[in-house]
Amino acid sequence: MDAIDRKILAELQANGRLTITELAERVQLTVSPCHRRLRDLEARGVIAEYRAVLDPDAVGLGFQTLVFVTMLGATRAIISDFENAVEAIPHIVDAQRLFGEPDYLLRVVARDLSHFQHLYDEQLSTLPGVQKLTTTLVMRQVVENRALPITGK
Q: Is the pLDDT of residue 68 over 90?
């Protein structure tokens, strides 16, 4: 990946709706070579997807919690069952397996505290293989959806 590819990626991270003409202009290429590079970045999986980033408050999901999960065990079956169950809950918008304790960090969105309590009681507390859930309320999002720092080495 060279400097031009990095410029293409930086521009697309800043604005994924750029037309190929606008993108080519910004990275100082003609349209055809820019388009070829873009297709190559997509084909290699460097660009994983294109999507809109929504404002949670604007869609009524401004209440966020972090849920730390400690598992009963770490067998392949327990981990697989837990991760499959997590993937099936749409209000879990981010899930990370961690080294050490806790075992997982989940970011959960809800309408309000009452909605979160319902999610907790009906879905989170029934996740397979869980020993303990610890919840922290998010006061304010400081950094979110930050572009990857790909322009430097």
A: yes
